[in-house]
Amino acid sequence: MTQATQHSSRPGAGSSEPLLSVRDLRVTFQRQGEEEFHAVDGVSFDVRPGQTVGLVGESGCGKSVTSLAIMGLLPGRGNRVSGSAIFDGEDLLTLSPSAMRDRRGSEIAMIFQDPLSSLNPVISIGRQVTEVMERHQGLSRKQATPKAADLLERVGIPDPKARLLNYPHQLSGGMRQRALIAMALACNPRLLIADEPTTALDVTIQAQILALLKELVVDTGTALVMITHDLGVVAGLCDEVNVLYGGKVVERGGRHGLFRDPRHPYTVGLLNSIPRLDAARGDKLSPVPGSVADNLPWTAACAFAPRCSNAIDPCTAETPQWEGDQVVGFRCFNPMGGTR
Amino acid sequence: MTQTSDAPDVLVEVTDLEVYFPIKSGIIFDRTVGHVRAVDGVDLSIRRGETYGLVGESGCGKSTLGKAILNLEPPTAGSVVFDGTDIASLKGEDLRHARKRFQMVFQDPMSSLDPRQTVESLLLEGLRAHGLDTDTDATRARLRELMSDVGLPVAALSKYPHEFSGGQRQRIGIARALSVGPDLIVADEPVSALDVSIQAQVINLLQDLQDKLGLTYLVVAHDLAVVRHISDRIGVMYLGALVEESGGAELYDVPLHPYTRALMSAVPVPDPQVEDTREQILLTGDLPSPANPPSGCRFHTRCPWKQETLCDTERPQLRVVEVSGASDSHRVACHFAEKIASGEIQRHEVEATITTPGFGGPDAGPTAPPEAYIGV
Ligand SMILES: Nc1ncnc2c1ncn2[C@@H]1O[C@H](COP(=O)(O)OP(=O)(O)OP(=O)(O)O)[C@@H](O)[C@H]1O
Ligand SMILES: Nc1ncnc2c1ncn2[C@@H]1O[C@H](COP(=O)(O)OP(=O)(O)OP(=O)(O)O)[C@@H](O)[C@H]1O
Ligand code: SF4
Ligand code: SF4
Ligand SMILES: [Mg+2]
Ligand SMILES: [Mg+2]
């Protein structure tokens, strides 16, 4: 396959051993009086140092639950997690809560869609950033303060010294997201997981934040897992892309390969559904028909079959297995294209 | 005035429209301390049968303008003329009659649909309000027709809103708007809450209905790709005013306003090759508050082409410019549009400024400080 070398377009990407190796991750929710619900249904992927890996898919496909499970942040009750998430030789899923807390914020950091809910409203931005450094790096507040100002400057917050004294509500959404990125970077994490970090922002502010993330990844060598529903964001940012549907990775590929020659009918359907700024008006969109409510259970079918224009007999009788490896592949009986 | 104002095919004519919201003092709520200039001098006309797309970032006043056009928000100044009649002059029965001719579709259909009513009773409510439920058989046929128009099974009539997915609920919202047979539909972010595959279904539905029923649309959205896809003409808004207006294709080919160029360059395109090669114009800093808009050109605090003269002192008006590729229906509000297009004026760095959101700011965040701070 030609794709194996295609995705390593950035320095440090793709060459070394994985930093994070997720294998057969499953998260099952037991809702009151209902059948078990498989939110994440056997997800595997690798993230190498310096690499940006995208998890993309529509609402409810399991992107957030995947990241929360890896970070040990799922609500304690009502769910079952299995599989493994090997980070630096250790399985994060079996770490004690206190050991996981130590990793979080120092070696692995996370940014969420809504910065307001991740920032404490009654503590100044400066205090929140220095606290992370005090906790994980053993710095005193005095030592940490100038570093915090440097960090804010680094993430593009104007007049950083004055901003240290601001409270979250005094900053705009874009500035808050920058502050949150500064906090996430405070301890030079090796892995950053960003869950829809720009979805709540205006598009010109989104462009600023994406440019910042891109720059930081190159400068610091931090690996980035980018969770988004926007294939445009993926196209601009990710070295490797995992397309999720109904809790499973249905296709994976390098950035250029996946967009040039998508194999899974769902990936193709998504691409055909997006109105493009550079397309002529009048071109009709060809949306994927139906909705996720039509999904079949993966246990004896392809979940996507009721919405798939390529479906053939086995699609409603068997589970399609993964064809490929940790770099490229898809899960489909009757794939599209086929030049890669 | 627009050059089309006297043409017969204009359905909606908006002139010098202003909608200001008073800002009340945070603790004593009866003192007005200023105004949010949500819509601050807009001129536009919507032609019969076309789709006019209004695009701009959060807080620029798109929704307020849409509501003012539907007479749901009283204008502070200016006028909205619908099919020859100034809507502000309408009262009582005349107003009710006119309302039937313009309907609205909202972003979040759930919040606009009463959860305790079945789809049938939701639709009947609209028909009755306008005296259209006269004959039982005709009404039944009408309901079935509406369901088939928006692509829902007839069985959906007896269900409740929560039994539907987001995309289906949007179809119900569209059916309700269509039920009274309007000429104009104002759709405010009709697809922004939907997943891409569902979004595309609803976009196609809106286009099909327009072809079938000859509807006129005003589509208000923050997503330029969506707006470009469905609009004949596009108006780009920034801080309460139009900065550029033109046909959709022309706006993409020959964007004249610096803000339009920045906005366009910020929209991600699902194609790595395009993403790697295109020019990005990154704006610095925050959107200023519409309660305290910058002097002169409202974009001057962030404009990468800002000049020493005029930009911060004089407010540019929408005008037609002589630029190759720009037709005479293409209007732009920039003092230096010609020189920017010709390359005579080059892009430069901009010092970022930060906006502290307060009351009525452009930000969706809290409008008042958390209680803990009051008095600190
Ligand atoms: N605590 C929970 N209890 C029960 N079900 C849950 C819980 N959290 C998530 N789910 C379900 O798991 C599925 C996957 O959710 P997840 O939040 O991962 O989706 P997502 O891909 O992040 O979607 P979005 O784009 O909307 O954020 C959804 O069907 C969701 O309803
Ligand atoms: N009823 C109101 N009272 C006070 N201020 C208001 C009111 N409605 C809107 N505003 C303010 O007017 C400005 C324009 O609001 P509007 O909702 O029209 O923006 P928009 O372009 O639709 O933004 P969005 O994309 O976030 O929907 C904003 O600053 C908003 O806070
Ligand atoms: S396995 Fe069958 S139903 Fe599923 S995506 Fe492939 S062709 Fe379509
Ligand atoms: S008038 Fe001046 S500040 Fe405004 S857009 Fe044109 S160049 Fe920029
Ligand atoms: Mg999510
Ligand atoms: Mg709005």
From TrEMBL, chain A:
CDD domains attached to this UniProt entry: ABC_NikE_OppD_transporters
Location(s), subcellular: Cell membrane
Record PROSITE patterns: ABC_TRANSPORTER_1, ABC_TRANSPORTER_2
Family per record: Belongs to the ABC transporter superfamily.
SUPFAM superfamilies in UniProt: P-loop containing nucleoside triphosphate hydrolases
Record's protein name: ABC transporter ATP-binding protein
Span of the signal peptide: none
Any single GO BP term: peptide transport
Organism: Nocardioides glacieisoli
Main location: membrane
GO cellular component: plasma membrane
Keyword terms of this UniProt record: ATP-binding, Cell membrane, Membrane, Nucleotide-binding, Transport
Membrane topology: Peripheral membrane protein
A Pfam family it matches: ABC_tran
One GO MF term attached to the UniProt entry: ATP hydrolysis activity
TrEMBL record, chain B:
Domain of life: Bacteria
Domain ABC transporter: 12-264
Protein's GO biological process: peptide transport; transmembrane transport
GO molecular function per UniProt: ATP binding; ATP hydrolysis activity
Pfam families xrefs: ABC_tran, oligo_HPY
Gene3D superfamilies with a match to the protein in the record: P-loop containing nucleotide triphosphate hydrolases (3.40.50.300)
Residue ranges, annotated region (Disordered): 357-376
Keywords: ATP-binding, Nucleotide-binding, Transport
Family classification: Belongs to the ABC transporter superfamily.
Name of the protein this chain belongs to: ATP-binding cassette domain-containing protein
